[in-house]
Amino acid sequence: MKLIIGLGNPGSKYDGTRHNIGFDCVDRCAKEWGIELNQSKFKGVFGKGVVNGETVFLLKPLTYMNLSGESVRPLMDYYQIPIEDIVVIYDDLDLPTGKIRLRQKGSAGGHNGIKSLIAHLGTQEFNRIRVGIDRPRNGETIVNYVLGNYYPEERDAVGESVELVAKAVEAWTTKPFLEVMNQFN
C-alpha cells in the first residue's frame, strides 16, 4: 500500500494558493487515476484505489497546514502503512516555480506542515516531493505570498509541475523511490 499526502489548507479561500499546491497535486492524481476523495475521517479527506496493481491512498489533511501530522499518523496506524510507503507533497520557497525535488529525508526547512509531520511520525526520514513556488517579490511578506494566488506568468509552470508530480508518484507505484528520485530530479 502507498499513501500519497498533499499538504494544504482547507476551505475555498485557500483554493489555488501557493501553499495548497500539495492539494492540487493530490487532486490531479485523483482525477488521472479515477480515485474519488470521498471519505472523511482521520481529520482529512481521502480516497482509495489501485494504480498499476498497487493499492493507493490519497490524503488531504483538513487540519490546516501546521497540524498536518494529526491527520497523517492516525491513517497510517489504522491501515498499518509503514513510513517507507508514504510520500508527502508540499510547497517550497527555495525552489523556482515549476521545479520539483524528490527527497527521502530532511529537516522541515521552516515548513510548518513538515514540522508537524516530523513531530507525529517521530522521524525526518520519509519520502517527500517539494514543489517550487519561489520567493516573494516586491517586499511581500512570506505569509501573504504563500497564501496568495500565483502570478499570471507562473500558471503554466505550476500546471507543468503538478503534472510532473503526478507522473513521479505514478512511477513510484512500480519502482523504488530512490529510482524515481534519480529519474525526476
Automatic annotation (TrEMBL):
<dbReference type="InterPro" id="IPR018171">
    <property type="entry name" value="Pept_tRNA_hydro_CS"/>
</dbReference>
<dbReference type="InterPro" id="IPR001328">
    <property type="entry name" value="Pept_tRNA_hydro"/>
</dbReference>
<protein>
    <recommendedName>
        <fullName>Peptidyl-tRNA hydrolase</fullName>
        <ecNumber>3.1.1.29</ecNumber>
    </recommendedName>
</protein>
<dbReference type="Pfam" id="PF01195">
    <property type="entry name" value="Pept_tRNA_hydro"/>
</dbReference>
<dbReference type="GO" id="GO:0005737">
    <property type="term" value="C:cytoplasm"/>
</dbReference>
<dbReference type="GO" id="GO:0072344">
    <property type="term" value="P:rescue of stalled ribosome"/>
</dbReference>
<comment type="function">
    <text>Catalyzes the release of premature peptidyl moieties from peptidyl-tRNA molecules trapped in stalled 50S ribosomal subunits, and thus maintains levels of free tRNAs and 50S ribosomes.</text>
</comment>
<keyword id="KW-0963">Cytoplasm</keyword>
<comment type="function">
    <text>Hydrolyzes ribosome-free peptidyl-tRNAs (with 1 or more amino acids incorporated), which drop off the ribosome during protein synthesis, or as a result of ribosome stalling.</text>
</comment>
<dbReference type="GO" id="GO:0006515">
    <property type="term" value="P:protein quality control for misfolded or incompletely synthesized proteins"/>
</dbReference>
<feature type="site" description="Stabilizes the basic form of H active site to accept a proton">
    <location>
        <position position="91"/>
    </location>
</feature>
<comment type="similarity">
    <text>Belongs to the PTH family.</text>
</comment>
<feature type="binding site">
    <location>
        <position position="66"/>
    </location>
    <ligand>
        <name>tRNA</name>
    </ligand>
</feature>
<feature type="site" description="Discriminates between blocked and unblocked aminoacyl-tRNA">
    <location>
        <position position="9"/>
    </location>
</feature>
<feature type="binding site">
    <location>
        <position position="14"/>
    </location>
    <ligand>
        <name>tRNA</name>
    </ligand>
</feature>
<feature type="active site" description="Proton acceptor">
    <location>
        <position position="19"/>
    </location>
</feature>
<dbReference type="GO" id="GO:0000049">
    <property type="term" value="F:tRNA binding"/>
</dbReference>
<keyword id="KW-0378">Hydrolase</keyword>
<dbReference type="GO" id="GO:0004045">
    <property type="term" value="F:peptidyl-tRNA hydrolase activity"/>
</dbReference>
<dbReference type="InterPro" id="IPR036416">
    <property type="entry name" value="Pept_tRNA_hydro_sf"/>
</dbReference>
<feature type="binding site">
    <location>
        <position position="112"/>
    </location>
    <ligand>
        <name>tRNA</name>
    </ligand>
</feature>
<keyword id="KW-0694">RNA-binding</keyword>
<keyword id="KW-0820">tRNA-binding</keyword>
<feature type="binding site">
    <location>
        <position position="64"/>
    </location>
    <ligand>
        <name>tRNA</name>
    </ligand>
</feature>
<comment type="subunit">
    <text>Monomer.</text>
</comment>
